[in-house]
Specification:
It is built from twelve helices and no strands. With 285 residues, the chain is an all-alpha fold. Helix 1 crosses helix 2 and helix 2 crosses helix 4. The N and C termini lie far apart (61 Å).
């Protein structure tokens, strides 16, 4: 896999670029959406396969184009967000639809619903580190993930889109096919749910949540700061990224081969029918 160039606002990105931009983001977003750790790899493949199929129709300027005053210009309008952000929002839409099916299947199998486990992601770990030490680096992301999963799914998706992806209320309403007032109401309730999830932690853990900076801060500010910190997407290890890429290429090749198979079979059937017809004509002569 070669290093892709950054996506251009006026050109459709390559699938390599979609993968490079989307992998770190989706790796974390799937956890926000309640996908279990053991299922993340399979869900990543499903999302990227869907993105590969949909990429020819990807037109971010339809939703994120800036209005161009004055004379019209040739080509698509400039984006009002970065090309990377547009790609992330598009991929999140695919991820949200895929995870909806994922949760429906889990419900039919009567599995434990998201967020029904321990209330703190460090239960069962070595108790030696203090809560402040546990909030370092990737552990903080797991804290946010655990807290987000206490928010009802229909509210959580709006909280993630608004607070973590910076999507405007009108755009969320269009993407989720909801009224804007419904989006605003669910966003307000989601913020309350998230703050309540933080407040339900023990006093020691709440102190750890406040210790995001050297200075003390109110609990609601600590919750907001946690959300902002979660919007930083760490790089996926190169070996894991390459292994997933190779599996994707194999599946794409299989899918494309399966799509071509019916046309080959039809051609073979037509040739066989023509041959039989020619034999019958020869016998009648």
């Amino acid at each position: 896999m070669t290093s892709p160039s950054p996506p251009s606002p006026s050109a459709r990105p390559s699938f390599e670029t979609v993968y490079a931009v989307g992998l770190p983001f989706l790796h974390r977003a799937l956890r926000w959406l309640g996908v279990e750790t053991n299922d993340v790899d399979d869900m990543l493949q499903e999302i990227f396969l869907a993105a590969h199929r949909a990429l020819p129709g990807y037109e971010p300027w339809r939703y994120h184009g800036a209005p161009s005053p004055g004379l019209p210009t040739d080509g698509p309008p400039p984006l009002r967000i970065t090309p990377e952000a547009a790609l992330q929002r598009w991929l999140f839409g695919i991820a949200w639809r895929k995870t909806s099916h994922y949760h429906a299947r889990a419900h039919r199998r009567r599995e434990i619903p998201s967020g029904a486990g321990a209330s703190w992601p460090f239960d069962g770990r070595d108790p030696t580190p203090t809560p402040e030490q546990s909030l370092a680096s990737d552990d903080r992301a797991e804290v946010v993930t655990a807290l987000l999963r206490k928010v009802a799914p229909e509210r959580r998706v709006i909280l993630v889109m608004y607070e973590l992806l910076g999507v405007a209320v009108a755009d969320i309403a269009r993407e989720l096919e909801l009224k804007e007032n419904t989006v605003r109401s669910r966003l307000r309730l989601a913020r309350e749910d998230f703050r309540a999830a933080v407040a339900r932690q023990s006093s020691e853990r709440r102190s750890a949540l406040r210790a995001l900076n050297a200075s003390e801060r109110p609990l609601h500010a600590a919750a907001a700061s946690l959300l902002r910190a979660a919007a930083v997407f760490p790089t996926v290890p190169a070996a894991a990224a390459r292994a997933l890429w190779l599996r994707l290429q194999h599946r794409i090749a299989r899918c494309e081969g399966a799509a071509d198979a019916p046309s080959h079979l039809a051609a073979e059937r037509r040739a066989q029918q023509n041959h039989l017809a020619a034999e019958r004509r020869a016998q009648q002569m």
